[in-house]
Specification:
This protein is α/β, with parallel strands linked by helices. Helix content is about 50%, strand content about 15%. The structure holds guanosine-5'-triphosphate and magnesium ion. Guanosine-5'-triphosphate binds near residues 106 and 287.
């Protein structure tokens, strides 16, 4: 009996993302809101404090509070949160008949290299022919970090012996190999950068241009912004600025396991019209989950 229970829990923990710290905040709301059939006076101030404290942001919090004024129940709150997240649902579809480049960008330490490792693992397990490009050519450690992920999952990593090679040249080479060696998907790493660094943003635009130079083969390029889920309103601003400057197809939000401020995802879903493809909830290869609003809301209550 006990053995069975344990097994079941283990299975559940695989399905439900680990959002325990954010859950500590949101689950406080359950006590403040009546169930459908209860009478209770609504303490909007306390509810607001919790939402703001979880980084839901002022405008999105206002929206939620307004809805609670109309229907002050926990069921309505969950529905409202779900509706906000649903705005950002769009799967990252890979057409394996066409070569695809996923270009990973974002600020320093957001989780780009780790996420490439995890995605490579996922795609390879789905039977795709995967290639990685160590496009963060500034730091030897960044190249080594990606090589380690490649070795762990038996995935080829394109690097260069030339220490002075620039990122766009390396990614251009890798794109050529994607096509000539008939790989299906190339995951390209880049160095972290701030959205207000003009030179480094120009470099990203150049990378996008050179990838599309290899384009007689109908290559698909998707630019994915990696965002640290614990970064609060800064993360939100980054998403807005990177999108404005570079153009991004979608987001991956990382480190949601290590933050109580995972409410930022509601602000992002509400105010940016960008798809959230995956969420990162840990450091190992399978700690990357396809973004599922239902699972997310369930995991934080
Ligand atoms: N807990 C947790 N840690 C993560 C997650 N994603 C990445 N990390 C950790 O965050 C740290 C930074 O990750 P990297 O992948 O090196 O970040 P990066 O964006 O490539 O960083 P730069 O190359 O320096 O710009 C590493 O210690 C990762 O293990 C996650 O979802 N959860
Ligand atoms: Mg990196």
């Amino acid at each position: 009996m006990f053995g069975f229970k344990k097994q079941k829990n283990k299975k559940n923990s695989k399905l439900t993302p680990n959002l325990d710290l954010t859950k500590q905040k949101f689950s406080l709301l359950s006590a403040l809101l009546p169930k459908d059939n209860e009478d209770k006076i609504l303490d909007t101030e306390q509810i607001e404090d919790i939402l703001i404290g979880a980084d839901v942001g002022v405008t999105t919090t206002d929206k939620i509070i307004q809805s609670l004024h109309k229907k002050p129940t926990i069921e309505n709150l969950k529905q409202e949160l779900l509706d906000l997240l649903k705005k950002s649902v769009k799967k990252l579809e890979i057409d394996v008949k066409k070569p695809t480049v996923l270009l990973m960008i974002g600020i320093n330490g957001a989780g780009k290299t780790t996420t490439i490792g995890k995605l490579g693992f996922k795609f390879k397990n789905q039977g795709m022919r995967v290639l990685l490009a160590a496009g963060d050519t500034y730091r030897a450690a960044a190249v080594a970090q990606l090589q380690e992920w490649g070795q762990r999952n038996s995935i080829e990593v394109i690097t260069s012996d030339n220490e002075k090679i620039d990122s766009s040249a390396l990614i251009y080479d890798a794109t050529a190999q994607l096509i000539s060696k008939k790989y299906q998907i190339l995951l390209a790493d880049t160095a972290g950068r701030l959205h207000n660094n003009k030179n480094l943003m120009a470099q990203l635009k150049k990378i996008k241009r050179v990838i599309l130079k290899n384009n007689e083969d109908n290559l698909i390029l998707k630019t994915i912004l990696i965002i640290d889920g614990g970064g609060g309103q800064n993360s939100f601003n980054q998403a807005q600025e990177f999108n404005k400057e570079i153009g991004v197809n979608g987001l991956i939000i990382t480190k949601l396991d290590g933050t109580a401020r995972g409410g930022i995802i509601f602000a992002i879903a509400d105010k940016l019209t960008l798809p959230i493809y995956y969420i990162g909830t840990g450091e190992s290869a399978d700690d990357l989950k396809e973004f599922n609003p239902q699972d997310f809301v369930e995991a934080i209550f």
